[in-house]
Amino acid sequence: MASVTQRIKQITQPRGGYVPPARMTPTPLSDDHPEPLKTSDEKFSPTLMGLAVDYMSRLGRGNPPTSAFGTSLMGAYLLGPEEFDRAADLIGRIKGLDHDSLVAACRLTGYDVVSRNGGVGFKPVEQINPSTVATDHIATMVRRIAAFVASVGPVVADGFHFDPDGYTETVSQGDGDLLTADTLWDIKVSKNPPTKENTLQLLMYYLMGHHSGQDIFSTVTCMGICNPRLNTIYRLPAADIDPQTIAAVSHDVIGYR
Question: What residues have CB less than 8 Å from 64, skipping those under 6 apart?
Fold first, then answer.
C-alpha cells in the first residue's frame, strides 16, 4: 500500500505524462508584488515551507489551530508527552504572519514527518530556523492564497480525505488541499510550473474524490493548482482528459476494479 505521492514515484508514466502539464490553462494573479518569489535567498527546506504556507493559509481561513496543524500535532503526539507539550507551546506562539509566529509554524511542520512516514529524517524542531527572507516569503504566499480564495470561493472543504470508498489496496493514503464548488485545488510553492507528477496527482485526487462517495465531490468538474510563489493558477476541466487516460489511471495507477 502507498500514499498518492509514493504511488506516483512507483509507476512509469507515458511519454509526456498521463496528463501533459501544457494542457493546464495558466492565469496570473495580481497583488502589490506580482513578481515570482525567488528561492535563492531563502536557505530553507522547500518541503517545510510548503507545509507552513498550507497550514497558515488554513488558519487564516478560520480553521482552528488543532485542525490546521493536525498532522503536525499527531506527529508530536506519537513522539511522546514532552514533544506534544513543545508542539502545544509552538501553537500558542502563532499570532499572525510576523517572523516569530512563522518560525513557530515552521517548527511545528517538522513533526509532520513522524505522522506521515514514521519519523525517518526527523530532527529536533528547535533546529528549524527559517531566515527572515523565508518567513517574509511565507507571509506573502499566505496573503496571495487568501486573495485567490476570495476570488474563487467559497471553500467547500479544507484538507479533505477520500473516505470511505476512494482508497484502494494500492493507494491507501493521501489528502487534498482545497475544494471549491467546482474545482479540486492543490497548493504548490515550487519555483517551477506544474510537472507531469503534479498533474497525475491532481487526476488521482479527482478520481478518488468521485469514488469516495462524499457529496462534496459531486459538483467538482475541474482540477487546479494554485502556486503563490509564481503568483499563478493553473486549471484543467476533467472533460478535457480522454476516457482512455481516465480508465488507465483508475485501474493501473489507483487500483480500482
Answer: none
Give the Cα separation of 187 and 239 in Å (integer). 22
Listed in order, strand segments (DSSP E) in the chain are 2-3, 25-28, 155-158, 171-173, 178-180, 183-187, 222-227, 232-237
Collapsed DSSP state (helix, strand, coil) of residue 44: coil
CA distance 146 to 141: 9
SS3 content of the chain, % helix, strand, coil (to 5): 50, 15, 35
For residue 77, give the C-alpha cell: 503526539
In angstroms, the CA 205 to CA 201 distance is 6
Q: What is the pTM of this model?
A: 0.91
Q: Are 160 and 216 in contact (CB under 8 A)?
A: yes
Written as tens digits, the pLDDT of the chain (257 aa) is 899 999 999 999 999 999 999 999 999 987 666 678 999 889 999 999 999 999 999 999 999 999 999 999 999 999 999 999 999 999 999 999 999 999 999 999 999 999 988 888 899 999 999 999 999 999 999 999 999 999 998 999 988 999 999 999 999 999 999 999 999 999 999 999 999 999 999 999 999 999 999 999 999 999 999 999 999 999 999 999 999 999 999 999 999 99
DSSP string, 143-162: HHHHHHHHHH--EEEES---
Give the span between the Cα atoms of 99 and 137, in whole angstroms. Answer: 10
Q: Nearest-CA neighbor of 134 among 112, 109, 106, 113? A: 106
DSSP string over 127-147: G----HHHHHHHHHHHHHHHH
